[in-house]
Structures are given as structure tokens and as C-alpha cells.
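Standup notes
- DV: blocked on the single-chain target, sequence here:
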Amino acid sequence: MNKLIVLFLALTSITAPAQALSDSQTPALKAPQNTPVSDNVSPQEAAKMLTDKKAIIIDVREDNEWNLQHIPDALHIPLGQLKARMTELEPYKASPIITQCHSGRRSKEALVVLKLAGFAKAYNLDGGIVSWTKAGLKVE
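- DV (later): unblocked, structure below
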């Protein structure tokens, strides 16, 4: 209970100065141009980031799913192996990484793993490969 009270007090002391500013004094916060604002990216955004060599895609599906079809140039690291294979992703730590699975559930889990490991520019492909193919984007 004491830890919760300390945490609450710490949070309120952090946010209090910002609340003291009026709306006209609050600096506008904007994401850099061409940077996704949320953790989700649409298939079109992901395709553009991939084409422009501004991101890599990590496919976290199982081998049998990958073998059926996958996004060209995606890295295949099944979700169950992600933590053990994190060193393979170290060269991309400062780059945008897009997690992808079938429909988006597993890739959201992978996104959390990456964020906790310090990958600040990690995103989730909204709707997974299902939405990618519905958008008419290339698969192998």
C-alpha cells in the first residue's frame, strides 16, 4: 500500500507542472513527419516504410504459416523464439521494426517484448498478413 501511495505522489508531482500551464502555454507535441503516431501501422504505411528501407518486418508466425505465404524481405522469428533470438535484432534497435502475424494478436505480444527490450521504434502491423493481402500487397 505504501508503495502505491509513493508511486501516486511521484506521478502527481510529475504531471502537476504541466497541468499548471494554460493551453496557450503548452508546447505542441508533434510526431516527426512520416512517423506513425500509434503502435499500429496500416498495411500501406508498413509497405511504404519497407519500400523506403525505413523499417524491417518481423513475422512472428509459426513455420507452417510462413511457408504458406509471407511478406517479401520479412525476418521470420516465431513468437515463441523471440526472446531467445533477441540478439539477432540488436542491429535494428535504432530502426523502426514492424511486428506481423496472421491477424495481429501475436504480433501485439511481440511488440510488447520488443518495447520492454528497449526497441522504442517498434510497431504492429494492424490486421496482420490478412489485412496486408486484402490491401493487394505482395506476398511470397
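- Follow-up: The longest helix spans residues 2-20.
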